[in-house]
Fold this protein.
Amino acid sequence: MGGKQGIISIKDKLLDLFKGDKKIKFIVAVGILGIILILLSDVFAPKKENKAATTASDYSLSQENQELEKQIYDMVATIEGVGKAKVIVTLENSAENIYAKEQKRNTDVTKDAQGGQDTKTTQKDSTEEKYIFVDDPDGGKQALLTTQKAPLVKGVVVVCEGGDDTTVRSRIIDAVTTALDIGSNRVCVTKMSNVNK
C-alpha cells in the first residue's frame, strides 16, 4: 500500500505544479519531454560494434588468400618464359597470433599425523595463466604479441602460357616451394589454354 500512496502523492504534486505559474508548467513540460527523448534515443540508437585492434588475425581467410595469391603471382610473372599466368592458393587455416602469458604455480602440501605413526601427505598443485597487457597508442590496453604464425598453405596452382615447358615448370615449382616452405607435391603447374588468353 505504501508504494501506491507514494505514486498518488507524486501524481498530486505534479498536478499542483501544473495548476500554478505558467513558467513552472513550461519547465516541467520541457523536462518531461527531455526524459522521453532520452529514453527514445536509447531504444532507436544503432548498436555500436566494439572496435578491436587490427591485427593479421582479424583478416578473414579469403583476404589472406588473396594477398598470398597476389604475392605469388607477382613473383611467378617475373620468371622467364612464364607469359600470362593465374595463381590459386588454398589455405588450411588463417594466420595465428600468440600472446605473452604470465604463469603462477601454487603447491599446497598438507601432512596429517594419525595415531602418532601414520603420516598422510596431500599435495595440491594449481596453475593460473593470465595474458600480459600493454598500453596501446589509443590509451587502451592490448595483449602483448610475441609470435605471429603464418597461415598453412594446402596447395598452389599456377596456370601459365609457359606451363608445358619443363624448364619453366621447374623454375616455378622451385620458386613457390622456397617462398612458401612447402613440398613440391603441393604445387601444380599447368599450361594455359588458348581460350583463356
